[in-house]
Amino acid sequence: MLRKASYKLRITRREALYVHDEPDHALMLVELEGEPIEYTPGVAGEFVSRRCVNFHDRTKGAGSMQGYAITNFQYGSVYSRFKGDRDGKSKTTNGTWETYKGTGKLSGIKGNGDFKVTAGKAKNEFILNMEGKYEL
Q1: What H or E segment, with its residue span, contains residue 53?
Q2: Domains in the chain, ordered, with CATH?
Q3: Which residues neighbour 20 within 8 Å (Cβ) at sequence distance 6 or greater?
Q4: Which has the closest alpha carbon to 107: 130, 81, 73?
Q5: Virtual CA dihedral for 18, 22, 23, 28, nearest 10 degrees?
Q6: How many CB atoms sit inside 10 A of residue 71's CB?
């Protein structure tokens, strides 16, 4: 089944360590929580919460990232991992995601797809647009 969703994400915690091998090279661990902007309930019911933890390796605002997301719904949860790259000029991150675990009505879920993250209107706010296919 093809699905699309959009979420507003807010940073709840960020830790950065500078590498000092070249200007503005940092490793960051970031925690975000989100809420749907565009979402149609599926077999697991209404959205409850979304939390993700990301690791970034950036130089001057560009670089790779990877992480994990847990999205909880009324009748189950889905666990995903993702990876992508951020363009420092456009401040846009593009990447891929895949599920690795599900609970409740999402038990046995298999899925993957693409995502794009752009800056939101407020500080420490981002917009996640994702699409992909999944099967139960």
Answers
A1: strand 47-59
A2: 2-135 (2.40.350.10)
A3: none
A4: 73
A5: -30
A6: 23
Residue 38 has a CB neighbour count (10 Å cut-off) of: 9
Rounded to 5 degrees, what angle do the CA atoms 127, 64, 88 make? 65
Residue 87: which H helix or E strand, with range? strand 76-87
What is the number of residues in the chain? 136
Report residue 72 as tokens.
Answer: 């909880």
Contact in structure between 1 and 131 (CB atoms under 8 Å)? no
| Phi then psi dihedrals of residue 105, to 5 deg | -70, -10
Task: Identify the three-state secondary structure at position 98.
Answer: strand
Token pair 């500080």 is found at 123
Q: pLDDT by residue (tens digit) across 61-100?
A: 999 999 999 999 999 999 999 999 999 999 999 999 999 9
